[in-house]
Every structure is written in C-alpha cells, then in structure tokens.
Amino acid sequence: MLTGKTVVLGVTGSIAAYKAADLASRLTQAGASVEVVMSEAATRFITPLTFRNITGRPVVTSMWATDSEFSVEHVALAEAADVVVIAPATADIIARLAVGVADDMISCTVLATKAPVILAPAMNVNMLQNPVTQHNLDALKARGFAIIEPECGRLASGKTGKGRLAETEKMIVAIGQRLNKSSDLAGKHVVITAGGTQEPIDPARHIGNRASGKMGYALAEAARDRGAAVSLITAPTLLPAPAGIEITRIRTAAEMKRAVARSVVRADVLIMAAAVSDYRPKKTARTKIKKDRAVLNLELIRTPDILSQVKGNILKVGFAAETDSIIANARKKLAEKQLDLIVANDITDTTSGFGVDTNQVTIIDKQGNEETLPLLSKREVAERILDRVVRLI
Questions:
Q1: pLDDT digits (tens, 9 = 90+) for 62-100
Q2: Which of 165, 146, 168, 166 is nearest to 156 (CA)?
Q3: What does DSSP say about strands 83-89 and 6-11: parallel, antiparallel, or unpaired?
Q4: What is the DSSP string of 283-344?
Q5: Looking at 180, 209, 345, 359, which residue is catalytic?
Q6: Is 124 a catalytic site residue?
Q7: What is the pTM of this model?
Q8: pLDDT, tens digit, for every residue of 197-236?
Q9: Same-domain check for residues 130 and 243
Q10: Residue 47 neighbours by CB distance under 10 Å
Q11: Do both 44 and 164 map to the same domain?
C-alpha cells in the first residue's frame, strides 16, 4: 500500500545509519518515492551516493544546496511528503524537534510538514533512559509523533540494552499503518488461518499436507496494511513472523478449532486459508513406533469442521484447494459451510497452490457469481480477495 506515496526519510548521525539504506531500498521496492534528507553527521557514517543509487532520487544534505530541487523553498519537501520518517533518530534530533529548533533540512521539514511524522530512535541505552530524552519523547508523542520503540541487544558501545534501531520490517509496518490509518479495513478485526495442520502419529511422525502458509500470511499482511487489526492463527511454517500482527501458533486441527473459537468472538471477518487435516490417527503412540513390522495400519477418524461450526454475525471466507471438478467442489463447500465467499484453486498446477509464490484462483460468492483471476502473486491475490471482503462488509 505504498505505491505512489512520497516518504521523506531523514537520516541522522548514528552508527545505525547503514540500516536506513535497507529501509530506503524496501520502501522503493514497495513502490514509494523516497526522498532522503541527511544531516551533516549522517554523511560521516554513510554516503549520499548510496541512497541516490538505491532510490534513484537526489539526496538533500544541506539547506543551501543550489542543485537541489527543494533548495529554493525548503517547505516544498515538507509539502510533498505523505509521511516523514526519521531513522535513525538520535537524542540530538529528538531534543531539537521537542523544542522546535529548525536549523537544518531535517528539522525544517518536520516543522513545516502537515504529514504524519515517525521517529525510530537509536542510541546508547543510558542516553535513551536519560530523563531528558524520555521527557522529549513524551512531548513528541503528545503532539502526535509516532515512535517506533528501539530494540534490546548489543549496542555500538559494546554494552547490551535497549537502544538498537528497530528492524526494517517493523519500520515498514509502522509506515504502512500510519499511511493507511483511514483505509478500507480500519476498525475491523480480521482472523486469518494459515499453513497445514499436523496430526501426530507418534512423537516423531505426523500426518500433514504440503501447505506452506504463504497465502494465509499474504492475506494477513495485506489486511494489516489496509488498517485491520489482524489475528493470524498459524500451523507450523518456515515463514518469518509478520510484524504488527497478533499470532497464535497451533499444530493440530483441534488446536486450530479452539484458537478460532476464541478469536472470532470479537472479529468481523474470518478467512480460513489454512489447509486443515481432514483426518487424524484415532490413537497417538506415546513412544516412537519402531520399523520392525512389514505393515503399519493406522485407523483414522475425522477432524472437526471448523468453518461450519463458526456462527454469528461474521463474514466467512473459505478456500477450496482441489485437484478435479474445481468449481463444482468449491460451490458445494460454499453452500455446506454457509460461506460468504470461497476461493477455489487447482493444486495440481505447478504455478499455483502449495509452496509457490503465485496463485490462480476463482472467487465465488454465495449468490453464485464467479470471478476468475489470472495468475498473480499471492499478495496480489490477497488484495483481490480483500477487495471483495470490503464490498461485503
């Protein structure tokens, strides 16, 4: 949700300035126009050329640079901004902003802008904990500045404590949420399930499926970026935990059922993107079954049907991962589970379904209308599904 947005990135003099290059790169890749403004001290840690190559835009380092398109009127940069981000934000810039000093391009831009301002502090733990710094941060929060809390870890001084610049992913999420505060899912609570559940045979083995969780995670991140409060209920997966999302980790279908039941009480939307096991072993061995028999017989019993048991005033979206009669099977599932939407896909297609980054789906509503999408990235599919959700709610 950053496409077409202008992000003014202020970089101040901290050893963490090198991380701002990664932030600028990620923002640019997400479609934002990134205008980098560097303090003189920041240029001692990282060169303006680095940011220019990353963003494809000139870098402002002085209020008096005659070759800058913003040099004639410094407020032009402030007016161009959809959001101003200072990362890393040193104790010095925090102090100067708290009292309204405007003696360089970064402080002038902040003072002149009407765009939201986000600060990502990075400094020595003692400087951060100093009452003066805390007072300045509190004053800025009271004026509407967003503060991305620094993290704990090893600092440049060699000490361990709170003061490390937040990870890039966390900053990206904060920027997206600030930009999308009035977006179409703001104020809504969306519960999303992801991954493939695992039903244990013994302590070493389980019955599972090939679901990677990529579709569910894409949905969770897209809903978060559109302003929703997101609860992600995830089976085991190799995917990194998305920032800014409440995560509940489960393993079995029964555990997922309980987690869903707890979460939907306060939810507006449930999207069941997880591949839930249909069967589980009737008995689970307490110890590892040894390979000393020619045949191992497992008696399987049905697992609970989670979607059909969710009642109440909640919009329900299901998935039908099929190998044949795709649309017919999806329509049957839509009716039986009383869903508002179902998303059908062919898992035998090597470009779609489990384990890949793309998907080709057909979305069917309860009136029977079909929308077949072309092959898209899973994030794009997630956006299209959420477009339909927004129309319904």
A1: 876 655 555 544 578 889 999 999 999 999 999 999 999
A2: 165
A3: parallel
A4: S--SSPPPS-SS-----EEEPP-HHHH--SS-EEEEEEEESSSHHHHHHHHHHHTT-SEEEE
A5: 209
A6: no
A7: 0.75
A8: 999 999 999 999 999 999 999 999 999 988 899 999 999 9
A9: no
A10: 15
A11: yes
Per the structure, how many domains does the chain have? 2
**CA 163, chain centre distance (Å):** 23
Contact 3, 30 (CB under 8 A): yes
The total of other beta-carbon atoms located within 10 Å of residue 265's CB is 10
HEC profile of 89-149: ECHHHHHHHHHCCCCCHHHHHHHHCCCCEEEEECCCHHHHHCHHHHHHHHHHHHCCCEECC
Same domain as 166, residue 228: no
Give residues with Cβ within 8 angstroms of 327, minimum separation 6.
344, 362, 364, 370
**Side-chain half-sphere exposure of 258, counting CA atoms within 13 A:** 7
CA proximity to 352, closest of 380, 317, 385, 376: 376
Distance, CA of 211 to CA of 216 (rounded, Å): 10
Query: Which of 168, 225, 209, 215 has the alpha carbon at shortest distance from 192?
Result: 215
Q: Is 107 part of any domain?
A: yes
Report how far residue 198's alpha carbon sits from residue 232's, in angstroms, rounded to the nearest whole number: 17
